[in-house]
Amino acid sequence: MARSRLGPLTSVCGNGAAQYGELLMMSHPNEDLMRTGYAAFAAGDVPGVLAVLDPAITWTAGDHNALTGVSRGHDEVVAFFTKLFEVTGGSFALDVQRIVADDAGAVVVSNATATRDGKSYAWAITHVWEIANGQATSLTIFSHDGQTMDSAFA
Known about the structure:
By secondary structure, the protein is α+β, with helices and mostly antiparallel strands.
C-alpha cells in the first residue's frame, strides 16, 4: 500500500532496538479517511460512506449525463448513489489507483466501470476532495473521458 508522506526518523530493528536515521512511510489521516470511505462504497455500506462525509457536503458531478449536477448534504448524496446504481443496474464500480492527501484534502484517481443496456464502459476518473475536521466537505468529480462517462450514465 502506497503511503503519502514521510514519518519519524526512527525505526525498530529486528532485535527491538531503535535505529535513528531510517525514514518510515506513514499515511496521512486524510488518506486513511479516503481509504475508509472508498472501502465502504465498494462494500455497499452507505452509512459507512456517510460517516466520512460532512452532513453539509457539496458533491459536484460534471459532464452531461443523468448524474450531472450539485448535491448538497447526506440526503442528496444518497439520492445521487441511488440514481447511479439505477442507471447502471448496480454495476458501477471503482478501482482506486492512487490517493494523494494533505491537510486540506485529497485527490483520488480511479478506474471506473459500468454496464448499461448490455454494453460495458470503462474510464479513468479523478475525485478532488476538500476535507476539514476529519470529514469530507466537498467533492468535485472529473472524468478523463467525459464521452464514455456520459454514455454510461445517459
